[in-house]
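Appendix B. One record, verbatim.
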Amino acid sequence: MTEAQPSSLVRTLASALWFPMFFIVGFMVCYLLPFHAPAPHNMPVAVVGDQAAQHLDAAFAQAMPGGIDVTAVPDEQGARDAILQRQAVAAYDPADGQLFYAKANGSALMMVLQQVFTPIATAGGHHLALVDLAAAAPGDVMGTGLFYILLAMNIPPYITVMMLLRAALTTRQKLLALAGVGAFASVVCYFAALSMDVIYNEPVLVLIGFLLTQAVAWTTFGLVPFVKQFIPGVAMGLFVLLSMPSSSGAIPKELVPVFFQALHRFLPLGQAVDSMRGVLYFNGAGALPAVLGLVAWCALGVLLVVFNQLRMKRKKAADPEAVTTAGTYEHEDDSEVVVDPAIEAPRPKHHHTLAGTVRAAGGEPVPGAIVTVTDPTGGQLAHLVTSNSGEYEVHDLPRQYVTVVVSASGMRPAVDRVAVRPGRIAGYDFVLEPDARRHRMAGVL
């Protein structure tokens, strides 16, 4: 085969390498940027007493603009309620130097709070006294165990969708498989975490975990026909690159830039973290809105799937050939795979494409026929085998005249010269006649 045309080589490389390049840049922007130097951003803190609150608010505004948002509470009980109702991540009582917090929100947050309020307590003549109102489970020492449990429910659904796209299954079977994988993940992760004391025994967490798996799985599945070959970037961008730094799982959301804080309440992983923490440590505070958010993502996925199914049914009714697929030289065994055109990620549209069917004189398709395409100098441009239905498809041909030779065992070869033009030349069929000489020689032998 001759060397590929420069433009074809560039398109091939771009098609093959865009995702790893996207991933490299995404990790720098979505991980290094928010995590390299955690610092307070709009951190809600309650302070006992109006005057003390105003004084600290002014001090924080000067020392770290936009870092800490101070609200006043009347007494110590108000400080405790602010934490337990998740209205603040910390509450300070200047009368005795007590700092109320919840370690369940993450050890990183506790360390930052201690650094911020230790000099304040010292200036007031007190030794900072830490009061933990919501300790993490015994096996979750750093307060990040919940995050790693949820990762095992957040990433596999996306991978499952990618694996199922080429599976020999119907749409219904694929959707049932997504539900089955989600149920398996939520149950296994729950009991594994329970056995390691990373969580407390709250069976409703299984349901929340299942909602997370289906939110990711169904939305990714439903987006495939619309974003096509870009589904890896779209799904990984939404459910991994943007979700993990904004989830408040590994690093509390109060310590990441405002952009990621804003995403926290809208992306499924953050909603799962919020709802599970609410159930485990805060008597359900903040859990319901987060669960409803997961339900909304599931509903979006269902709507995308249903809409596309209806769209493809109308398209197929209007043109029965519109959703058929053909074997190509990139995937010679496509005919062995039952492709679901309503969900299968379509191949990218190629310029200068030649496609058709090879049939015998009686009209039956000829599988395994060899199709060879050469340029005017005789250089080979493509060499492929027809599918079980006799179909072939050649991409990225040069815009010029090419020679197409089709051959099959026991048949006379067919040759034609084709003027390649931009777009897709479909229906360029060949009919192979029986080779009478070979039949006569076989009879003699």
